[in-house]
Amino acid sequence: MIRSMTAFARQEWQENWGQLCWELRSVNHRFLEITIRLPEELRSLEGIIREELQQHLKRGKVDCNLHWQTRQADVPQFNINYPLLRQLWNAVQGVQEVAKESPMPNALELLRWQGMLESNPLNLDEVAEGVLSHFKQAVSALVAQREREGAQLANLMEQRCVGIARELAQIRQELPWILQAQRERLLNRLTELSALNNERLEQEMVMFAQKQDVAEELDRLDTHLAEIQNNLKQAQSVGRRLDFLVQELHREANTLGAKSAHINTTRNVVELKVLIEQMREQTQNIE
Fold this sequence. Notes:
Layout: E1 7-15, E2 18-27, E3 32-37, H1 46-56, E4 60-69, E5 78-80, H2 82-98, H3 107-111, E6 117-119, H4 124-192, H5 198-212, H6 215-231, H7 239-259, H8 263-283
Parallel strand pairs: 3-4
Antiparallel strand pairs: 1-2, 2-4, 5-6
């Protein structure tokens, strides 16, 4: 199943350590370009996140944004070391008894004493584990949307292939009558050139044959069209190959148009080019 490169996934979770939201957005790009934005506390996870994306995506410009808000209860709390405080206060009172003129420390000075305040830091290992687990779910959601979009693109591409095949069939069907009309025109031209030498007549015949021989272009168009339809059924990344095949379709259609010497063929070629251009726009968004 082919994938689109345009997709968006937003996943939110509420954990016991806070609220988490992953936003993943991808657009078309020739290669895989990844931008990751993480809170400063979790910057060490960037390499793991990049590797995870590279395992699932081959092309596209991907933006990854993590929004994390800790619960109020999880904000680091400072606890007073009361046993130490009592020891320190007893020591201060002992000093005061000996040196009665020394000033007594205030509460802020006591709190500044090393070891007086004990913090209860957030367990970042637990947070990181949850972030990575939820990121994998967000990536799965992004890939699923790219596949849904890709299925729609494949359907549109298949419709264009059917339209192109129809135009080619009409050209083949009308080709005998077109060639007959051109032969009659050539005979009239030869009558006008009857006074010329055989070399000039031979040149006219060669030019006519080259002008009307479009079988090779039609065959190549059929081949490229079949290859495109085959690639639309593939599971791997085929965007670049499809882009190349569509360019080849366009080139053969131009050659066919240059050789066109009948109004019906010209109309068919114009419709061909319209369908091919629509396909070209669609292939730009296929992974």
